[in-house]
Amino acid sequence: MPPIAHVNAADLAPGALGACFHDGAAAVVMTGDPGVASLWRSFARQNVDLPWQAPLYELSANLRAHDDLTETLGDVFYFKPGRHAYIARKIEICAEGLDLVARPTTFHGVHGDWTMATELREACWRFAAAVMTAIAPREEKHPPFRAVVQQLKYHESVAGHEALFRMVHNSLGSWGRIGYRLDQRREEMRGPLGRRGVCDALALMSLIPLLRGAIDGLNGAAAHLDPRGNVPAGYKLIIKPHIDTRYFSALCGSRHNLRTEIFVDGQWLPLPISQDDVVIFPGSQAHKAYGIAPTLHRVIQARDAGDMDDAEPSNITLLLGAK
Predict the structure, then answer these.
(1) Which of 209, 215, 227, 244 is a good FRET partner for 296, with 20 to 30 A between their CA atoms?
(2) How many Cα neighbours within 13 Å face the side chain of 145?
(3) Taxonomically, which superkingdom (predicted)?
């Protein structure tokens, strides 16, 4: 089984995806499903105030914050150097009796409120249920789940991301800025130095000017011991390598100068993300439920922004999943 397998939507039988993942695939491209392109168009071209187009005041009004980022819903502005860099709209759909309920139920905007239409909720739920059935063993019913719907917008350039990092840093008080720099240094630690506890101690020590150079040198040497930290020339790490906590993540979207990559057999492989097909890979919940190895992945961005087509939305990902 190749690390990136291809499955036609017509062959998405119970247990089919689980079999692919157990046989060695780290991701599966599902082709031939017109519903994927339809969902992409429904979200990308909806006549609503999207969070990356809205004033910060409107963005904050739609946030449903949580100490655990994976549980945060609504409109999210999240910029942490080396770990995350996006503006997103995050929705969950739950089955309550015979109804499908989206949370948040309503998003407020300058031009009026928006509520996810019943047909759109049902389409997202059907997709998530079909994938959950295909991941579970053939004769086994999948557990209850919440459907995940996220639109993630990345800036068109590395310089744009760095400007947003500066804005977040500048908005903090003196202690907040120290904490921000500590978080940044933690994310920069590579190889064995990136382990929890070790990276915390080194990040704190690196705030001492006399120690920073030595720690940077040690970190550079450690990076060569771990191929997961390799970034190709001309690219910048935007989202650090991580495993999703969901049962699965399914990605489609518009990419200009971004690459989502998965780590397989000591090397990073780019995922073929488009507006017509969807790429599915397992998260930690699939490992707990079915023993499927979760897929390590990251996002990198070309430093050269190049020319863009202004007629199409760029660097936007539609993520569908279940947890």
Answers:
(1) 215
(2) 29
(3) Bacteria
Joined tokens for residue 243: 């495993």
Q: Is 99 helix (H, G, I), strand (E, B) or coil?
A: strand
Nearest Cα to Cα of residue 288 among 170, 183, 120, 135: 135
Kindly report the pTM of this predicted structure. Answer: 0.90
Please tell me the distance from the alpha carbon of residue 189 to that of residue 154, in angstroms, as a whole number: 23
Q: What is the pLDDT of residues 131-150, one digit of tens each?
A: 999 999 988 889 999 999 99
79 in Cβ contact with 168 (< 8 Å): yes
Q: DSSP state, 79?
A: E
- Cβ proximity of 107 and 114 under 8 Å: yes
Which domains, ranges and CATH numbers included, belong to the chain? 4-158+240-322 (2.60.120.330), 160-229 (no CATH)
Q: SS3 breakdown of the chain: % helix, strand, coil, rounded to 5?
A: 35, 30, 35
- Bridge partners (DSSP) of residue 89 are 75, 151
Half-sphere exposure of residue 244, counting CA atoms within 13 Å on the CB side? 22
Buried b vs exposed e over 228-245: b needs ≥16 C-beta within 10 Å? bbeeeeebbbbbbbebbb
